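Attaching the record inline, Q. Sequence:
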Amino acid sequence: MLELIKAGGLLMWPIILCSIIAMAIIAERFWFLREKKIAPENLVATVWQWRKAGHLDKKRLQDLRTSSPLGKILAAGLINQQYSREVMKESIEETGRHVVHDLERFLNTLGTIASIAPLLGLLGTVIGMIKVFAVITSMGVGDPSILSEGISEALITTAAGLSVAIPSLMFHRFFRGKINSLIITMEQEALKMIEVMHGNRENENAPGLQ
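Structure, as predicted:
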């Protein structure tokens, strides 16, 4: 491995750095974007039970706010439950934008790595070919071994750049899709709570609240 890195030249180091950052982001996002952590099951039902039992006080709201992103969204609506449905919905949407920003954290960086890694590989290819032509100009093509350094640098950096870019792009799109799915789930749960609180659903028989 060390021999390949040396043969790839100086541009191998930024490519390796990109790979380390990409792996760290992928691992962190896998840990953070767990559905049970983002949108715990039956959270709306639990909140409704607290409200019916008269336990929905400031401490409960604070605990709900810090428990999960969905809890943060629901707490924003519950703080304004005495107001109209529209006010509740606006407060939920405002908090939801902040939650989505947290869910998308580091994804721009991962997307940037997916874009620049092949460009770094391409730059390494160009530099390697420049070295090859420089050797040809000065020494001719009589001995192919003298061209091997530039050719190796060109091929290795290209392969390394693509090896970083391809999984980075795959995981970037995977996390985008997962976040969109989580956003839809949280929207549905928040709307369910609003409808129940304002009597647009039967409280006792609301889906998921039994």
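The chain has a mean pLDDT of 84. The CA atoms of residues 104 and 176 lie 8 Å apart.

More tomorrow.
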